[in-house]
Amino acid sequence: MPTNPNAPPDVPASVYQGPAQPAAASAYQGPATGTPASVYQGPATGAHQPAASPAAPAKRTRAKSVADGKLKPQKSQVASAKLLSTELHDLASSGEYVQIFGSTALPAEDFAAHLVAAAEATRTANDAKATARADAADAVIRWDTLLREDEPRFRAAWDLAVANDPSLPNRLPGAQQFLGARSQSASRAASTRKQRLTGAPVRPRTKA
Question: How far apart are CA 196 and CA 192, in angstroms?
Answer without folding.
Answer: 6
